[in-house]
Design goal:
This is Nucleoside diphosphate kinase. One of its GO terms (molecular function) is ATP binding. It is an enzyme of class 2 (transferase). The chain has a four-stranded antiparallel sheet, with helices on both faces. The longest helix has 11 residues. The protein is of the alpha+beta class. The protein is 39% helix and 20% strand. The structure holds ribavirin triphosphate and magnesium ion (MG). Ribavirin triphosphate binds next to β4.
Length: 140
């Protein structure tokens, strides 16, 4: 299978607890390669735009506020089946339901503050990468 790219965020609950390295280690051990990475403090506008698909959901306001509360690390990951692979390594949205050994099982604090984001399909992966990175920032 050809190499695929996906978009990842290490969320504020994880950067606050200094878990960036441990999370990247799990992604790398799972066969993914970091081809772009930067630490940013998201603005409210950036977070609202990024999560626009969830704007009617009851947790939208809380989610936007959380994502802007502390710095995050936005990344592009590359590997075979990277989109599905990343979501496997992340585990279920709710840490109580996440499989043992996954990032969310080990590190997430709650369904909202769940340590990582990962694109859910090829279209969203492409859109999300473009939302945060220019082409010359992707170094394979
Ligand atoms: P993500 O997009 O962050 O990778 O996570 P996901 O696909 O597993 O979850 P999704 O349904 O897309 O939800 C996006 C993020 O919204 C927050 N959330 N809070 N309080 C709640 O009930 C609730 N539900 C979702 C989480 O931060 C989730 O990752
Ligand atoms: Mg999602």
């Amino acid at each position: 299978m050809a190499l695929e790219r996906t978009f990842s965020i290490i969320k504020p609950d994880a950067t606050r607890r200094n878990l960036t390295g441990k999370i990247i280690a799990k992604l790398e051990e799972g066969g993914l390669r970091v081809v772009a990475s930067k630490r940013i403090h998201m603005t409210k506008e950036q977070a609202e735009g990024f999560y626009a698909v969830h704007k009617e959901r009851p947790f939208f306001g809380e989610l936007v506020e959380f994502m802007c509360s502390e710095p995050v690390v936005v990344q592009v990951l590359e590997g075979e089946n990277a989109i599905a692979r990343n979501r496997e390594i992340m585990g279920a949205t709710n840490p109580a339901e996440a499989a043992a050994g996954t990032i969310r099982a080990e590190f997430a604090e709650s369904i909202g503050e769940n340590s990582v984001h990962g694109s859910d399909g090829p279209d969203t992966a492409a859109q999300e990468i473009e939302y945060f990175f220019s082409k010359d920032e992707l170094v394979g």
